[in-house]
Amino acid sequence: MLKYEGRISQFCGGFETHVTREGLPLTGKKLFRNVLAQKFFDRLRNQAYLSDYGRIENNKNLFYFEFLNGEIKYYTRREIIKLAKEEE
Q1: Please, what are the averages of pLDDT over each run of 10 residues along the chain (88 residues)?
Q2: How far apart are CA 36 and CA 6, in angstroms?
Q3: pLDDT tens digits for 63-79?
Q4: 59 CB contacts (<8 Å, ≥6 apart)?
Q5: Whose CA is closest to 37, among 67, 61, 56, 2?
Q6: Which residues contact 71 (CB under 8 A, 6 or more apart)?
Q7: Which long-range CB contacts under 8 A does 82-86 form with residues at least 24 apart?
Q8: What is residue 36's DSSP assignment?
């Protein structure tokens, strides 16, 4: 799943129809200098039951992950780094 940070677009029937503003790909590259944190983030964003993920628009340090069951989890950069170190 490739997400775009800062992209504003309209959808019709599940398809993107009009892009108002282009964004940068939120691929997970260079989001974390810590290799463990980057791997943890990649694992979070590549989950099969994840419907959407990204950064909160006004807060660049807060990531959200929306799951297919409707649950939304929020993680800060520090929390992701902390969880990655605990998992090691």
Answers
A1: 55 55 53 86 82 78 86 92 90
A2: 26
A3: 888 888 888 899 999 99
A4: none
A5: 61
A6: none
A7: 83/40, 84/34, 84/36, 84/37, 84/39, 84/40, 85/36, 85/37
A8: H
Q: Which two tokens stand for residue 74?
A: 């929020």
Q: In a 3-state reduction of DSSP, which class is residue 63?
A: strand
Residue 77 CB-density burial (10 A; 0-12 exposed, 13-18 middle, 19+ buried): middle
* Cα–Cα distance measured from residue 9 to residue 25, given in angstroms and rounded to the nearest whole number: 14
Q: Which residue type sits at 70?
A: G
Tokens of 51: 């419907």
Phi (first) and psi of residue 26, to 5 degrees? -95, 75
Q: How many whole angstroms from its chain centre is CA 84?
A: 16
CA 88 to chain centre: 22
